Amino acid sequence: MLLKQLSRLVKSAAIIGGACFAANSAVAQKLGYPEKEELRFGFIKLTDMAPIAIAYEKGYFEDEGLYVTIEAQANWKVLLDGVIDGRLDGAHMLAGQPIAATIGYGTKANIITPFSMDLNGNGITVSNEIWKQMKPNIPKMADGRPQHPIKADALKPVVDKYNAAGKPFNMGMVFPVSTHNYELRYWLAAGGIHPGFYAPHKGDTSGKIDAEALLSVTPPPQMPATLEAGTIYGYCVGEPWNQQAVFKGIGVPVITDYEIWKNNPEKVFGITEAFAEKYPNTTIRLTRALIRAAKWLDENNNANRPEAVKILSQSNYVGADYDVIANSMTGTFEYEKGDKRKVPDFNVFFRYNATYPYYSDAIWYLTQMRRWGQISEDKPDSWYKDIARKVYRPDIYQKAAESLIDEKLAMASEFPDFSNETGFRAPQKHFIDNLVYDGNTPNDYINKFTIGLKQGDAL
Amino acid sequence: MISVIRQLTQDGEERFCFALVLALFQNFLKALLLPGLGIVGFLLLWSMAASSINTSLGAFPGPKAVAEQLQNLYLEHQQEREKEAAFYQRQEERNAKRLAQDPNYSAKIRPYTGKETFLDQIATSLITVMSGFLLAVLVAIPLGIAIGLSEKLNTAVNPVIQIFRPVSPLAWLPLVTMVVSAVYVSSDPMFAKSFIVSLVTVTLCCLWPMVINTSVGVASLNKDWVNVSKVLRLPAFSHVRKIVIPASIPAIFTGMRLSLGIAWMVLIAAEMLAQNPGLGKFVWDEFQNGSSQSLSRIMTAVLVIGVIGFLLDRSMLQLQRALSWDKSTELR
After folding, report:
1. pTM to 2 decimals?
2. Which fold has domain A122-260?
């Protein structure tokens, strides 16, 4: 009796198993099982880590057979070292980090990125004291509120006053090769304030040569506390640390990076080249999970954002209050207390092909590294393109996206047209200084800036 | 005692009862009422002070906020356990499905990947501190005995001990981290690197009080006992086992109690700085989060750290009382 039952059970199990196999076999042939199933990913407490949190909480990692542990890191250096020495399998990185690591600025290591995590999402905040001095220089709108975008021209007299009095004008950014450093420098330089050069060939990596504003590194979550302590007068950081300053009443965000460069590429997901070679299926699968998470975040015109904010406000992710994170994540941004304005694209995770790793994005970062002397010698245009091809890996992204399209988990229309995609965005306008950026001609672009190293310049 | 009772019965029943009540009351006063008053007074002062301190994250947390957080943290722990159960269930289903497709697959159950709750962090910290402390005991006591027995060894080693004793754990930490990363390499490590780093830091810092106390205890051995051992011609090992160790138990335990206290303090600092799992990381994470609940959570952690430190000290004291021969000295 028992035996009979048992054999029936085995038979039915076999039938179910067979059915499953038939249904999935087409996919299984194309994309194998992950070679490494237990993964550890690092992140910094910023709202743009959302795709990782969502891929975990919504089970997208598990759908790929990946068991992921997500771990907050103390600062960008610790995070990068973790990926390099293998303590972390992958991480939420500053776009400049994989590039700088590959060209050997800082720790040299071959880090690649198959997935760009978001567009925009940063802001520049100044302390109440500085804001008070800046405000008279800002044109007003009909209703008396300051007119945006606020240019650094309004800050220039304040900085001059400090410098004339012999007081250093200190500002914070999160890492020497961070988006924030380049954005803050871009904004300051566009307003005529010199943010200083780097000269790594002379051992000077502080970036303060000829500087009128002195920029130094502070980890993102500590920005508000450092501003409150008076160590710095302003900072450029990702969310929620600008909104936190408003919430705490210690500073005023003056501009978002959306206004400095509309839809600028921000964080990327970084892994080592060795990891991608050793575990190709795992790499594609984790990219698939992240694409699905990013899609979820932007779906139905940001309908899922409130749920995402709730997840991010958990103490193990970003951990700030719901209201603080919600301010920017749900399409508004609060400048001065009470001055809330609509910035619907403040955080873009998926639309505008935000997740596709464009070579031209990588080259923009390289041009800024050259502009400020982090790359101390002239390089031909071809060098810029070679480095971009080495670090940014749309090939992996394409495999992941195509398998998602095959499984009907995404539509082809949501991705770039892979058969014609060159990896270079059309020349981009919408910079605060109205310059046009074309990734195909990096050296021409560098020569356009008033402040900054040009072709042939050396320190 | 008997004489007292006799005297009391002579003086009459009433007085006896009165004396008994008085004695009981005095005991009660000493054991419960006074500490109780102290705690109540502290709570009052705390809540008064808390409401008048305003930070950029809101008012400083008072006793009420801490009580709420204790509840919250416990609730979070329970929710996390439910999520964990669901995680394992999903994993089993996924494994079964894959086995059906791919019979060669060796399914294994992976540990839960979710976050560590406050209670988990407490457990991690306790395990780490006890491991580091036990390792220190294993090194320090034999070393202390050796130093105590030999004047020459003492003179040779003493400067080194005196130099390392005052070194802060935070100074050791970067060195320990780098050395552990370099030395402890294995594809499937038995312990996490972060655990080893915390443990070694704790050991390095709580070694010294034990070494010093043990050696002093051994060196100040009663000369008569040493002479007895000489007369009996005890071999060296028996001399240590029968005479030296029993005689220096009180000193050894004093060192151990000091060390355990230091170990607990060091661990929290090390966890905070190195972001290693444990209560220190909990405090640091909450500080970084900067949410409106952060301060009250940190305050809760501070109190829990204190209570655990107190309990560790008390249990060491109980052990000392049980093992020490010298019952005459009052221990507090």
Report:
1. 0.81
2. D-Maltodextrin-Binding Protein; domain 2 (3.40.190)
